[in-house]
Design a protein that fits this description.
The protein has helices at residues 39-50, 55-71, 88-96, 99-104, 114-123, 155-161, 179-185, 218-227, 230-233, 236-243, and strands at residues 5-7, 13-15, 22-23, 77-82, 105-111, 127-130, 143-149, 162-173, 202-217, 247-261. By secondary structure, the chain is α/β, with parallel strands linked by helices. α1 packs across α8 (218-227) and α2 packs across α3 (88-96). Bound molecules: S-adenosylmethionine (SAM). S-adenosylmethionine is lined by residues 36-37, 45, 83-85, 88, 111-113, 116, 132-134, 149-152.
Length: 264
């Protein structure tokens, strides 16, 4: 680290932005001028997650971290959030880890959206960079817990950066997730396609569902809507119908899976 820039072993220089993150996104990973979630989507996600309606999901991340840290000896564990969005989950872990574990935990988050990373870096201590799941700029076998929260996994990259005792933790929408909203937006709600088949390089060691109901007011509903792909997939009429509600009760149905490298 050179005060305001990082220099790699090949002599390439990367400036540390004023907000405390580094842009390590290679030109090959940039399929558009402004990849990933837009500034508006990031702001909407921050507003929605700020309501704490997804707190049970953040608590589940914390529980997994505490269980892992208590089991694994060593001075340090590295937690990485791949596609970290605006940093809600790592921030929750940082704020709520017991003191002895907080000292041990090194937090790393990245996202392909610079807006998301700017937001994360401002709110939470840790190492933040703009980067892609396809080429994660981390040393091989350096990550203990890799969170993929509603993201776009790249299993070969995940496998490369995971430590031999490391764990991949995925949160994905279950069949009933936000079903009431989907039924309002779409004339025919398609059942979700079969659950992910993991590559043979990973073994599923635990799977559970987190389900509960939340009742949103119109502002919260708008933020939720703006942060999801429904915003782009729905017709103007579907969008209007969804946003017409003063209040709406929605099911949260999230599948939490823990996977380890098959070689472990
Ligand atoms: C559905 S959002 C989830 C954000 C966050 N994990 C959360 O749950 O709040 C998906 C995120 O993945 C990011 N993303 C999309 N493609 C990516 C890639 N190839 N590598 C890293 N992040 C990516 C988007 O910018 C967005 O922030």
């Amino acid at each position: 680290m050179d005060g305001v820039s990082l220099v790699c072993e090949h002599g390439h220089c990367f400036d540390v932005a004023r907000q405390g993150y580094v842009n390590l996104l290679g030109p090959k990973d940039k399929r558009s001028k402004d990849p990933g979630d837009s500034k508006d989507m990031v702001l909407a996600r921050a507003a929605f997650l700020g309501t704490e309606f997804y707190r049970p999901l953040a608590d589940a991340c914390l529980d997994i971290t505490v269980a892992y840290s208590s089991r694994v000896a060593g001075d340090q564990i590295t937690l990485m959030d791949a596609g970290c969005g605006e940093g809600y989950y790592l921030h929750h872990i940082q704020e709520n880890l017991p003191n002895n574990l907080r000292k041990k935990a090194e937090l790393v988050g990245f996202d392909i959206s610079k807006w998301a990373v700017q937001h994360s870096a401002k709110r939470c201590d840790g190492t933040w960079f703009v980067g892609s799941n396809r080429h994660i700029p981390m040393t091989d076998a350096s990550v203990d817990i890799l969170f993929d929260m509603f993201g776009f996994p790249d299993y070969s990259s995940f496998l490369r950066v995971l430590a031999p005792n490391g764990k991949l933790v995925r949160f994905t929408p279950g069949d009933s997730h936000l079903i009431e909203l989907r039924e309002i937006i779409y004339p025919n709600v398609k059942p979700r396609s079969e659950r992910t088949k993991y590559p043979e390089t990973f073994r599923l060691v635990s799977a559970k569902r987190i389900t509960y109901e939340m009742t949103l007011g119109s502002g919260e509903l708008k933020s939720l809507f703006l942060m999801t792909p429904h915003m782009f997939r729905s017709t103007p009429e579907g969008r209007q119908q969804a946003l017409n509600h003063d209040q709406l009760s929605l099911t949260v149905d999230v599948v939490v899976e823990e996977l380890i490298p098959t070689t472990a």
